[in-house]
Design goal:
The chain has 659 residues and is α/β, with parallel strands linked by helices. It is built from 17 helices and 27 strands. The chain is 31% helix and 20% strand. Strands 5-4-3-2-1-9-8-7-6 form a nine-stranded parallel β-sheet. Strands 12-11-13-14-21-20-19 form a seven-stranded mixed β-sheet, sandwiched between helices. A six-stranded antiparallel β-sheet has the order 10-23-24-27-25-26, with helices on one face.
Length: 659
């Protein structure tokens, strides 16, 4: 592509044909060139079993095509029609307590159900045959947000599928018993038929079983995706994807295993105002999506024009916020920007969800913000195809997320994603862009690798990280890392288990803090949530506790290992303390800082084909000045050494090479 695409999700089945024509005219005015349709079209396309009605979908596709708008065509299978769940109630999913979840919302289906798959695949086959080579087709959109509501199903069909998955994974029942530690609490199995999903129990459940059930559930939905994809590829040459949910409140799918199956990576992201810093989480999600894309450009498949409808307090966006949010995604690798949805619904569960075209129509701030964004995307179109360069890798693991937040752990106040976000936020505030990578990634090209709260890590990944440091790399590991192997089995001999040698420390026991309690460090920082009875073996102490349960015990250490350096952080630092430590670590690793301190400004650079583009996004209210030379694509002005970005504004500079 030679431009940044602007797109939306459209639900023509909610409107009459005269509205379609008015909508497409407005889409052209807004610069929309990619439209997702047929996302929830099953009951319209197949109103009765085996009876298909394509006239309306034909008409809307032809209307979009006649107006030069490409189609991101959904397979329509994300929610079954009432006739299917009425005739076949066995397709309905079950919650952890064993009770059935009924229709009335969406995704009321069991991922393992052969009946559901049979009917869904039949629909996909009809859609693919009809539209597979249509000139308007740009992309196939499999289902929608797979696993958003039904990722974990505990019904009998899922139970049998889980047992089949376990047989493939372990081969022998004794191998499973060893992996799950079933000698504890008399859980030893004698036959595969005895194994159930980890349904709700009277006490704490087996943590290894729970992690394996997460793995199975992710694999089961991925297998479903493969089923739809095989049909599409048999009838069409268009690329295939589905919309991921890389966000703070969805954790049930291991997207590292999904990403290789996608022709292009797409993500849905919504600001989550339940978080302390939703904008920082947006940046993290964009970096993680780029990591899933292997550094290549990706699609923001959904975002909100204003408020959503599913949070306790659904905050609208202030003028300029849509532009700032969007260009943050673009800065971090997105080359297509899409919204849910085009026209705000008049009925249904999402009638209060914002849209590009709000209930009040075009004489609105929201519509003018859409036009403003469209003009900005046109202005920076030449950025498309460039990539984001990073000297720092941050290791992220869905499996570790599942395991670290088990039912019985040292502190319920310690949450995996909070610690990952805190580390990423500190680097972002210094202008350090991270590639977010899996534990199995090649680390050799990075100056610094950051490992936050990686509770679960396999032997191969741990060895790779250790070898990276020995070869001259720099490493930062934070607390509750390296504790268990992939079976959720404790690495004996002292914490942090897999990383003891490379870090040069040994922890005898954890000493978590109660929420609200803090400790002071000798470097002036404060810590919370966590301390450890730690001693150094080969490491030097950077800072110790002045007070709390462990005065005088090291809290931050530095170890020279081989040709590299490894740092360990044994507490949860306050924001400034974390930023100061990050600055020390990145400077020690000779990583360039695009900024010198925190604040509300983020800076990211994209490069490619001899071009370099600097994005400066000012989330604050005060103007900032930033060193840059080149041409500001947003304002169409030359920048002669200093870029001024007003409060709430953005700048995108095509940089000039140094003389």
């Amino acid at each position: 592509m030679n431009s940044i695409r602007l797109g939306c999700d459209y639900n023509p089945e909610q409107w009459t044909p005269d509205v379609w024509r008015a909508d497409v005219a407005l889409m052209r005015e807004a610069g929309v060139d990619l439209v997702a349709i047929n996302i929830f079209g099953w009951s319209s396309l197949e109103p009765a079993p085996g009876q298909y009605a394509f006239d309306d979908l034909d008409e809307i596709i032809e209307l979009l095509h006649a107006n030069g708008i490409r189609v991101n065509l959904g397979t329509g299978t994300s929610s079954p029609p009432p006739w299917l769940t009425t005739r076949h109630p066995e397709v309905l999913p079950a919650a952890a307590d064993g009770t059935t979840r009924y229709p009335g919302g969406r995704q009321a289906w069991c991922p393992s159900s052969p009946v559901f798959r049979d009917r869904a695949f039949a629909l996909v086959r009809e859609v693919a045959r009809r539209y597979g080579e249509h000139p308007a087709l740009a992309l196939w959109h499999v289902s929608n947000e797979l696993g958003c509501h039904n990722a974990l199903c505990y019904c009998e069909t899922s139970a049998e599928a889980f047992r089949t998955w376990l047989r493939r994974r372990y081969g022998k029942i004794e191998t499973l018993n060893e992996a799950w530690g079933t000698s504890f609490w008399s859980q030893r199995y004698g036959d595969w038929a005895e194994i159930q999903p980890p349904r709700a129990a009277l006490s704490v459940r087996n943590p290894a079983q729970i992690v394996d059930f997460h793995r199975f559930s992710s694999d089961e939905l991925l297998d479903y995706y493969r089923g739809e994809t095989a049909i599409l590829r048999a009838h069409s040459s268009a690329p295939v994807t589905t919309n991921f949910m890389v966000t703070a409140h969805i954790r049930n799918l291991d997207y590292w295993s999904w990403a290789p199956e996608m022709d292009v990576i797409a993500n849905d992201h919504y600001l989550d105002h339940r978080l302390g810093d939703p904008v920082a989480e947006l940046s993290f999600a964009a970096d993680l999506t780029r990591g899933l894309a292997g550094g290549r450009p990706w699609i923001l498949m959904e975002q909100a024009a204003g408020a959503v409808n599913w949070q306790p307090h659904n905050l609208t966006k202030a003028p300029g916020e849509m532009l700032r949010n969007t260009l943050t995604h673009v800065a971090r690798g997105a080359d297509s920007i899409c919204f849910f949805q085009w026209r705000a619904s008049a009925q249904g569960a999402e009638k209060f969800h914002s849209a590009m075209l709000p209930h009040a129509g075009t004489d609105t701030v929201a519509w003018r913000e859409v036009l403003r964004l469209s003009a900005a995307l046109d202005a920076i179109g030449e950025v498309a195809g460039t990539t984001v360069d990073a000297d720092v890798a941050l290791i992220f693991s869905w499996e570790s997320w599942w395991a670290a937040e088990g039912e019985a752990r040292p502190s319920q106040a310690v949450e995996y994603l909070d610690q990952v976000h805190a580390t990423h936020r500190a680097l972002r505030e210094l202008g350090v862009t991270c590639d977010i990578v899996s534990p199995d990634a090649d680390l050799s090209g990075y100056r610094l690798v950051v490992v936050p709260c990686l509770y679960m890590v396999g032997d191969v990944a741990a060895e790779r990280i250790t070898e990276y440091v020995a070869a001259g790399g720099h490493l930062l590991v934070t607390f509750f890392s390296g504790i268990v192997d992939e079976r959720d089995r404790i690495r004996l001999g002292g914490y942090p288990g897999a990383f003891r040698d490379v870090l040069g420390v040994r922890t005898e026991e954890f000493a978590p803090l109660k929420p609200g309690h803090e400790v002071t460090l000798t470097n002036g920082a404060t810590g919370a949530l966590w301390t450890e009875r730690l001693r150094t073996t080969t490491a030097s102490t950077v800072a110790s506790y002045l007070d709390g349960p462990l005065p005088g015990i090291p809290a931050i250490t530095r170890n020279e290992f081989g040709d590299g350096v490894a740092w360990y952080l044994a507490t949860s630092l306050d924001a400034r303390g974390m930023r100061d430590m990050a600055r020390n670590v990145v400077q020690n690793a000779a990583v360039d800082l695009l900024k010198e301190d925190g604040g509300d400004v983020e800076a990211v650079r994209r490069t490619g084909d001899g071009r370099s583009y600097l994005f400066v996004v000012n989330h604050g209210v005060n103007p900032v000045e930033y060193p840059a030379t080149g041409h500001n694509l947003i304002t169409d002005e030359r920048v002669g050494g200093t870029l001024r970005v007003e409060g709430g504004g953005v700048g995108v500079v095509r940089e000039e090479a140094p003389a």
